[in-house]
Amino acid sequence: MNKYSLSDIDEIRDYNRDRFISVFPASLQSKELLDYLYNSAYFTAPSACGIHGAWIGGNFDHSLKVTEYLLQYTIDENLTWQRKESPYVIGMFHDLCKSDIRDFKMTKDGELKVIMVPNKDKRHAEKSLELIAPFIELTTEEKLCIYYHMGKYDEQLDYIELMDKVAQQFPNIYWTQKADTKAAREGI
Ligand SMILES: [Fe+2]
Ligand SMILES: [Fe+2]
Hints:
Layout: H1 6-23, H2 31-39, H3 58-76, H4 86-93, E1 102-106, E2 112-116, H5 125-132, H6 140-147, H7 160-169, H8 172-185
Antiparallel strand pairs: 1-2
The structure holds fe (ii) ion (2 copies).
The site of one fe (ii) ion (FE2) has 5 residues, from α3.
């Protein structure tokens, strides 16, 4: 982290905004969505404190990686989606909830450190769904893939039985979990 200074945050925010505009389907982009993402910490938030994505824009890089895996699985495994843009919607917004729970602080030694922001809202997938809802109308499949993306890693284990039933009808839930886990295991 010490190769960054606080001013790099502004540069990375603009860089990731441009990446988003070039990658995300134009039909689902709007000024309102872009303004919201830009003014929240979506383009700069880290993914975690040290497990994966603990750098400026780590959560954005993670989201892009999950999107890439979903697109790859779509080709390799012949996946079909309720709309063709779904891998982008799910990949880019499944962890939207992380935009405001971590921040950066410069230590005395001049290193940029990830810190937790006090936040009462402990929800994860459900919070992501709530945050994207005003900007993009999600398909049922997108909602379910985001809702269940943590799979057995979610602390609310009581949903597992129901998840397995739902995933029989929406098997892309499992591919979403696989893409998410693969990216995280690779440190992104
Ligand atoms: Fe997640
Ligand atoms: Fe994730």
